[in-house]
Amino acid sequence: MTNNIAEIFNDLKKNKGALIGLIIIIFFVFLAFFGPMLSPFSESELSQHLLQDPFWGSKYNANHLLGTDDVGRDTLSRLLYGSRVSLFIGVFVTILSGFIGTLLGLLAGYFGGTVDKIIMRMIDILMALPSILLAIVVVSILGPGLVNAIIAVAIVSIPSFTRIVRAGVIDEKQKQYVQAAKTFGTPTTQIIFKEILPNCTAPLIIQTTLCFSDGILNAAALSFLGLGAQPPTAEWGIMLSDARSFIESSPWLVTLPGLCILIVVLSFNLLGDGLRDALDPRLKKGK
Amino acid sequence: MLTYIFKRILNLIPTLFGVTVVAFILIRLVPGDPVMLLLGERGADPAVYAEMKQNLGLDQPLLIQYKKFITNALQGDLGTSLISKRKVSEEFIGRFGATLELGMAALLFAVLLGIPIGVIAALKRNSLIDYFLMGTSLVGYSMPIFWWGIILILIFSVTLGLTPVSGRISVMFEVDRITGFMLIDSLFSEDGIDAFHSAAKSIILPAVAMGTIPLAVTARMTRSSMLEVLGQDYIRTAKAKGTPVLKIVFIHALRNALIPIITVLGLMFGSIITGAILTETIFSWPGIGKWIVASINARDYPVIQGGILVIATMVITINFIVDLVYAWANPRMRGGLK
Amino acid sequence: MLLSVKNLSISFETDSGRFEAVRNLSFQLDKNQVLGVVGESGCGKSITNLALMGLLPKEAIVTADELVFDGLNLLELNEKKWSVIRGKKIGMIFQDPMSALNPCFTVRYQLEEAIRNNHLGIPSDQIYPMALDLLAMVGIPDPKSRMECYPYELSGGMAQRVMIAMAISGHPKLLIADEPTTALDVTIQLQILKLLKEIQQKNNMSIIFVSHDLNVISKISDKIQVMYAGEIIETGSKEKIIKDYRHPYTNGLLHSLPGHQLHSEKLYSIPGIVPDLKNRPSGCQFAPRCQSATNDCHQNEKIQITNDNGHQWRCINPLER
To answer: Half-sphere exposure (CA, 13 Å, Cβ side) for C204?
Structure first.
C-alpha cells in the first residue's frame, strides 16, 4: 500500500496541474491554521476608514493592504479568517457525506436485493432534486446557520459516494478472494471493511477531493443566499453578498472573496483531475 | 420499443412516489405552525384558528392529508400560495417560461461552444491549445456562478454599459404575454424589433453565467469522449478507405462521441435548475428559481412543496427522455428495443 | 515490381527511451503476388503495414533508403497525397471486423462512402448499384437487406466480407490483410481465405497477408516472410519455407502448429519470450531462445543474409539440408 501511494505521488509530480493544485491547497490549509495569527486585524474589528481600495487602487490606506468594507473591517483579515471557515466546511461536509455515503454504498452493494433497492431508491430521490434546491429546503427546515448549511450540503453530497462505493463493491464482491473469504467463514463486517473497502480506495480518493470543492462551493452559495453562515462571520460567500451593493464604488470588495472561492475550488479540482489521471490507468490495469 | 418505454415508466413510479412523500414530509418537518403563520401576527382567536386548520385540512390524520395532497397534485392542484393567495400551479406556469427561456439559452451557449472546444482540444491533444482550452474549462467548471454573474455585471453592465443589470427587458417596452418567451413575445409587441433587441441584450449575461458550468462540462466530456473514439478501430478503417479528415472527425468520430455526451447533457438539467436559482437571484430574472428562494425566505410552504414536486418530477422526466434519446442514438440499443 | 522496401526502420520515442519496432526491413512485392508475413505478436508486422498506409501515430519515426509503391515514393507523401493511396491504390482489412466497422452507421452508408471516396465525381445514381455488386462479389447473400444492417447485426464473417467489399471498392493494386481471419471461427476462416484468393485472381491484385498462424499463411501465399523482433529472418517461396526452412525460429513456428509435431511428441512451444524491444539483446535477436546458438550468435552484430536463389535466411547456424 505504501508502495502504491509512493507510485501515485510520483505520477502526480509529473502532472503540473495537480502539483499546482496541491501547492495551493497546502498554502490554503496553512492560511486556515495560521491566518488569524497573521492577519493585522480581527475579523470584526472596525476602523474609521470605510470602503478603502486595495493597495493598487487610488483610495488606499496603508493600514489596510486589501482595503476595507462598508463598516471599516479589514478585507485581508476577513479573507484570512474566511479561509478557516471554508476549510472547516470542506472537512466536515466531506467527513459527514463520505461516511454516510460510503456506508450506504457498502450496504447496498454487498447485500443487494431489497436493501439495495431501498437505499438506491432513496438515492434516486435525492438525485432528482437539484443540489442547491435540496440544500435550501433542508436549511429552511433546520434554520439558517453554518452548521445547518454543512448538514444540508453534506446530504446533497451523499449520492455520489454511495454510487461509487456501490459500483466498486458489486465489482469486487464477485472476485475470488471475497468468495474464498466467505467460504472460510470470515465475518461479514470483516469481509466488507477489510477485503472489499480497501479496493474501492482509488475512486473514493478522487470523490473526496471533488466533494471538498463541491462542498465549499455549495456552502458559499447558501451563505450568499443568506441561508448559510450568518453575519458577522467572515465567510467568503457572505462577504460577497454584503459587498454587492458597493459593486460600483468598490468593485474589489466583491471581486476578492469570489476569487478566493474560485482559486480554492479550482485547486481541489486540479488535484482531483490529476488523481484521476494517476489512478485511472491503475484501475484499468487492475481489471 | 414500446414495451421498453412502458417498463421504464413503471420503474419511474416508485421514485416519483418517493418524491411526493419527501415533498409532503419535508414541509411538515418545518418547525412552527403554518396556521399561525397564515393568520399572521394579529394573534389568533381560537375559533378562527380551528376553522382555518380545518379549511387547510391540517386537523386530519397525516395519511388522509397525504392522500388529499396526492389526489390534488394529480389533478394539477398544488395548493394556494400563502403570500399571493394565488394558485401555486398558476404562478408556476407564469414563471416557467422565463426559466425555460433562460435555461435553453444557457444550454445552447454551452453546447454550441462546448462541443467545438472539446473537439479541437481532442484533435490537438497535449498541445498548448489543448492545455489552454482545458485549463479554461476547469476554471469554468470551478466557477462560483453567483460571483461570476456579479463579475459579468461589473464588466459588461457597470463598466462598459453594454447590457442591462437585471430583468428580462427594458421597462420602456410593453410586451404582452403570448408564449412566455420574451424573445418571441417582444417581436409581437408594438416596438417589435427594438423590444426584441432589448430582450436579447437582457438575456445574454444571465445565459452566459448560467451556461458556464455546463459549457465546461460539455467541453471536458466532448474531449475525453472524442479521444476515446478517435482511438477506435473504425476510425482507422475510415482513414484506410481514404475518407477526408474533416468527415472522419465530424461524422465518424463525433457521431459516436455524442452518445455519452447526450447523457451528460441530460444530467446537467439538475445543475441548470441550480444555476437558475442563483442566476435568477443575481439578475432579478422573474423565473422559478428566484420565486422559490423568495418563497423560502417568506416561508410560503405550499409554494415550496409544489416547487419541489414539480422540479423533481421534471428532473426525473428529463432523465427518462434522455435515456430514450440515448437508446435511440445508439443503434445497438435501438435494435435491442425493436 | 509493385512495392520495394529497402532498410525500413520505424522507431518510437517513449518516456522510458527510444525503441526500434522495425529495423532494416527490406523486401519486394511483385504484381499479382501474395506475400504472407508471419511472426509472433509484437514482431513489427502490423506496424510495417500501417507505415505502408501512412497510418502510424505521429510519434513514429520512419526512415528508409527506399519505400516505393507503384512508382510513388511513400516517404515524401503529405497527408493530402496519402488520400491518393488509401483506398484507391492500397486497401486494408483488419483483425476484428466488428470493431473495424463504425457501429453508428449502416453497411450501406459505410460502403457507399468508400465508393464515393475512391471514385471521385461518380454519378450518385451509380453508387448504390455498385455497392450491391460489391456485396454480391464478396459472397453476401441477399445484399439488399444486408445493406440496411448495422454492424452489430452482422456475424463476424459477414462483417469481414463487408470490410473486404469496402477495401476493394477502389480496385486497389494491393490489399493489406492484417490478421483478417484471427477473430473468426475456423470454418469461416477458410471461406474468407478462399474469397480473398478469388478476388486477388479476378482483380489482378497483390496481397500482403499478415498472420501469426503459419498454417493460414501457407494456404494463401506465394511467398512467405518470417519476422522476429522487427526483422525479417527468413524469406522465400511458400514451398521453401514450409519444407526447406533453414532458420531455427521458422522451425520452431512450424513445430508449434498442431499436426506438425515430430512423431508423437507433445505440441512444441518455443522456449523463452520475445525480446524487450527497448532493451534488445546483442547479436542475433533470436539467440536467447535458440537451442543451436553459439557465442558468435550472441555477439555478431552483422549477421550476413544467405541467399539461395531467392530463399534467404539470416542465421549463422542454419538447419542443414
So the answer is: 2
CA distances for B231 relative to A276, B224, B227, C57, C83, angstroms: 20, 11, 7, 10, 20
Residue B229 sits at the chain C interface (C-beta within 8 Å): no
Structural contact between residues C265 and C60, judged by C-beta atoms closer than 8 angstroms: no
Q: What's the domain range around A58? A: 2-286
Query: Cα separations (Å) of A224 from A136, A169, B84, B298, C61?
Result: 12, 38, 26, 17, 56
Task: Mark yes or no for CB contact B242/C83 under 8 Å.
Answer: yes
Neighbours of B216 (CB within 10 A): 23
Query: Which residues of chain B does A240 touch, with a Cβ-Cβ cutoff of 8 Å?
Result: 146-147, 150
* End residue of a domain, out of B30, B47, B74: B74
Number of domains in chain B: 2
Are residues B191 and B101 part of one domain? yes
pLDDT at residue A281 in the model: 59
Say if CB B106 and CB B213 are below 8 A apart: no
Cα gap A264→A283, rounded to integer Å? 27
CA–CA dist B119, B257 (Å, integer): 10
Nearest 5°: phi and psi at C28?
-130, 155
Query: CA nearest C224: which of C183, C253, C202?
Result: C253
Q: How far is B29 from chain A (nearest CA, A)?
A: 7
Contact C177, B240 (CB under 8 A): no
Q: Model-level pTM?
A: 0.85
Reported ipTM: the value is 0.86
Q: Which residues of A touch B150 (CB under 8 A)?
A: 240, 244, 247, 254, 258
Domain match, B130 and B277 both? yes
Nine-digit cell string for C318: 542454419
B57 touches chain C (CB under 8 A): no
The tens digit of pLDDT for each residue in B243-284 reads 888 899 999 999 999 888 888 887 777 778 778 889 998 998
Strands C231-237 and C60-63: unpaired
> Is the CB of residue B149 less than 8 Å from the CB of residue B283?
yes
Place of cell 435491442: B336
B59 lies in some domain: yes
* Chain C residues near residue B245 by CB distance under 8 angstroms: 79
Are residues B296 and A140, on separate chains, in Cβ contact within 8 Å? Answer: yes
Do B217 and B285 lie in a common domain?
yes
- Tell whether B56 is covered by a domain: yes
Closest partner residue to B154 among A226, A254, A268, by Cβ? A254
For position C60, which CATH number holds? 3.40.50.300
Query: From C95, which residue of chain B is nearest by alpha-carbon distance?
Result: B233
Contacts of A78 (CB under 8 A, 6+ apart): A43, A69, A234, A239
Please check whether residue C305 lies inside any domain of the structure.
yes
Q: For residue C237, give Cα distances in angstroms to B274, C32, C202, C308.
A: 72, 14, 22, 11
Res A103: pLDDT: 93
Q: Do both B122 and B248 map to the same domain?
A: yes
The range of the structural domain enclosing residue B59 comes to 2-74
Q: Which residues 6+ apart lie within 8 Å of C297 measured at CB? A: C283, C284, C287, C290, C303, C316, C317
* Per-residue model confidence as pLDDT tens digits over A121-160: 889 888 888 888 888 888 878 888 899 999 999 999 999 9
Residue with cell 526452412: C245
The C-alpha atoms of residue A273 and residue A270 are separated, in whole angstroms, by: 5
Task: Tell me how long chain A is.
Answer: 287
Domain membership of residue C258 (yes or no) is: yes
Instruction: Return d(Cα A197, Cα A185) in angstroms, integer.
Output: 18
Task: Give the DSSP per-residue string, A33-78.
Answer: HHHHHH-SS-TT-B-S--S-B-TTSSSB-TT-TT-B-TT-BBHHHH
Same domain? For B69 and B111 the reply is: no
Same domain, B119 and B231: yes
C59 chain-B contacts, CB cut-off 8 A: none
